[in-house]
Write a structure and sequence with these properties.
Blueprint lengths: L1 H39 L30 E3 L5 E3 L7 E7 L7 H11 L8 E7 L3 H10 L8 E3 L4 H5 L17 E6 L5 E6 L7 H8 L4
Parallel strand pairs: 3-4, 4-5
Antiparallel strand pairs: 1-2, 3-6, 6-7
GO molecular function, one term: antioxidant activity
Keywords: Membrane, Redox-active center, Transmembrane, Transmembrane helix
InterPro entries: AhpC/TSA, Thioredoxin-like_sf, Thioredoxin_domain, Tpx_Peroxidase_subfamily
């Protein structure tokens, strides 16, 4: 009798262990499926799906073509649109912004200090994909940044239109610009582009290109 009871107990224990094992395995699979789904639906800091809807336009192909129209605001809410900037040469510096210390920050500050780029017929717009609130952290660390014209492309739409999310200098392809420049003439035509993976200060090159414009 005792042997039967022991056998029954062993069988019940084995069944219990098997059931628990199945439940644990099922929970593990469910967790893995959720993780996979999360990765599949991963989004960037702006809520855009990773790796999708990224422009593959070559920067060189932009030269000689009308620049995409844009309207971007600075930290005070002032909007700069290409249509309203007609009659002025526009230099756009697409960069990673807050995370690009010190290279991008130094370039932005150098724009302010260079009289050659502060003329009535020329404006330099430093385009970052941070929010105005996030950019305040950069200004706290380097107060000179507050003097620059920094505009916020926090949904990355303008950067996409110009093909700036897939450049060689971008360290986060599809998410952030890198260290790229666009020179637009007074008629709204792109006359020069430069992507610099070395992330140098390129004022001299920009001034040389601007000098070619009437």
């Amino acid at each position: 009798m005792n042997e039967k009871n022991n056998a029954s107990a062993i069988i019940m224990m084995a069944v219990t262990v098997a059931v628990v094992g199945v439940l644990v395995w099922g929970a593990s699979q469910d967790r893995d499926n959720k993780l996979t789904a999360t990765k599949t639906a991963a989004v960037d800091m702006h809520g855009n799906p990773l790796g999708t809807d990224v422009s593959t336009t070559s920067l060189n192909e932009l030269v000689g073509k009308p620049a995409p129209d844009f309207a971007l605001a600075d930290g005070n809410g002032k909007v700069y649109s290409l249509s309203e900037l007609r009659g002025r040469n526009v230099v756009m510096f697409f960069n990673e912004g807050l995370m690009c210390y010190p290279s991008c920050w130094d370039q932005i500050v150098t724009f302010v200090r260079d009289d050659r780029l502060n003329q009535e017929d020329t404006i330099v717009l430093s385009v970052v994909v941070d929010s105005p609130e996030e950019w305040q952290e950069a200004i706290r660390q380097m107060p000179e940044l507050a003097e620059a014209v920094v505009v916020f492309d926090d949904d990355t739409e303008v950067s996409k239109q110009f093909g700036m999310l897939t450049t060689e200098s971008s360290m986060h392809k599809g998410l952030f610009p890198g260290h790229s420049y666009v020179v637009i003439d007074k008629e709204g035509i792109i006359r020069y582009v430069l992507d610099d993976p070395s992330m140098r200060i390129n004022n001299d090159k920009l001034v040389a290109e601007l000098s070619k414009l009437t």
